[in-house]
Amino acid sequence: MSNPPPRDLLTRTTTALMAGLISYATLAALPAHAASAEAASTPSLPAHTVSAIAASTASLSAHSVSANAASATSAITGRPLSVTDDSGATVTLHAPAQRVISLAPHLTELAFAAGAGDKLVGVVSYSDYPEAAKQIPRIGDNRALDLERIVALKPDLILVWRHANAQQQLDTLRALHIPLYLSAPSKVDEVATTLEKLGTLFGSESVAQQAARDYRGKIAVLRARYALQTPVSVFYQVWDRPLMTLNDAHWISNTVALCGGRNVFGQLAPLVPTVSTEAVVASNPDVIMTSGAGATRSKEALPTLDRWLAWPKLTAVAHGNLFIIDGDLIDRPTPRLADGAAELCKDLEIARQRLR
């Protein structure tokens, strides 16, 4: 495409992203002109917001002094808490985080899994798991954060989905010297390492480490069972307006590989490439998959696989290998990804049987 995508495309894609029905990385991985269009659509901060944030800096600094006082005990008993986030940056706290804001539903879920759900003071829309997450105050969504409220909540740590939040908003948060942890997992195994890192920052290492062990155990069982199975070729449909898929640098593709599948578009350069119907037909995959609605619902009509029935000679269609995975399990890199992987592996095993 040579022209920016229409505004309604960006709106539809963003709606699906926020619902957790396709990867948050999808929006960031749109072609550069699309990203530019999205950036242009994000309004600049109004003057009263800038003033309010500036006025709040003193209050935030006072809170930081209090936090530093609380860290004195930590300084006596050990070194500052330090981890490397998914952007490669070092995140250092002088005491376990006590007031945390999550800017992505999967990070909200990870915080609970790491034993620190009670430390969350603000989350974004669609932070709906576990049930307790629904009771935490909302501070906007990935396109419209309430920066004044974020400052008023006096967070000592903000969890960020690396590709989902407007750069202007992140720059504003950085200017307030609030520690940011940026998340961008690309492999199934990174869920466990993220749990452990968050456990370090929250001071809930024992809970986080147990959650990581449990997750690793489930993944190890799947890897042992399916890694040596007969490979099947897979087209994973992320979206259908336009037709989008994933390359091998995405955790869903890594899940497909875990289950003995081969992504037919894995070598394409963009993380979330746009492909043509003709390209899919030419690749003739053994399996076509997508994610569907779980408990999280979107106002948008979700993509289906019905379009492929128009090509009855496609191997996937001819053998009935069209599968829809629970979106809450596969689209969020959290401990529930192990359940999504089990579902995906089971579907690929069914496909193998049908191909024989």
Give an account of the 3D structure:
- The protein is α/β, with parallel strands linked by helices.
- It contains 14 helices and 12 strands.
- The strands form 4 sheets. The chain has a 4-stranded parallel β-sheet, with helices on one face. Strands 10-7-11-12 form a 4-stranded parallel β-sheet.
- The protein folds into 2 domains: 76-216, 3-Layer(aba) Sandwich (Rossmann fold), CATH 3.40.50; 227-355, Rossmann fold (3-Layer(aba) Sandwich).
- It has helices at residues 7-18, 25-28, 32-41, 47-77, 105-113, 147-152, 167-175, 190-202, 205-226, 251-258, 277-283, 315-318, 327-330, 337-355, and strands at residues 81-84, 90-93, 100-102, 120-123, 157-161, 180-183, 232-237, 239-240, 243-244, 261-263, 287-292, 322-326.
